[in-house]
Fold this protein.
Amino acid sequence: MSEKTIFASGIVQDHRNKVTRRFTATIIGDWQDNQGVLDETFYFADGKVEKRCWRLTKQGDKLTGTAGDVIGTAKGQVQGNTLNWQYTLKAQTDNGQVKLKLDDWLYLVDEYNLINRTKMFFWSFPVGEVTLHIAKLKKPKTTQTSADCRLK
């Protein structure tokens, strides 16, 4: 097994595209053969912290996953550098708990960066979106400022 920590930052928007939450996250991933675990901790700008532990299985181009706040099983498919999967999430709101349907699109930009766009639906009505950038840290290629970008 090879455990890796990656970092993320993102926003939550309502159905009118107004940013309602901002967050950062740490994600510790562990993968062996076709089984994986993602231990996610979200740190919201309002001080709230949320955790989610995904248990994942990959069979060919199909991916399934379960988590404590996910109803049933998330199901998706990988095509090239893209994963699309859907699931139902138990989400806590100011008015209590609701079931949101999520349509999750993950785009692998390169081996270090992933962009995630998620549309959220309550019944069949769109209620918001999540945009997330996930980054695996790497050593920069250069640590010096280029000559044309220095203070004179």
Summary: The mean pLDDT is 91.
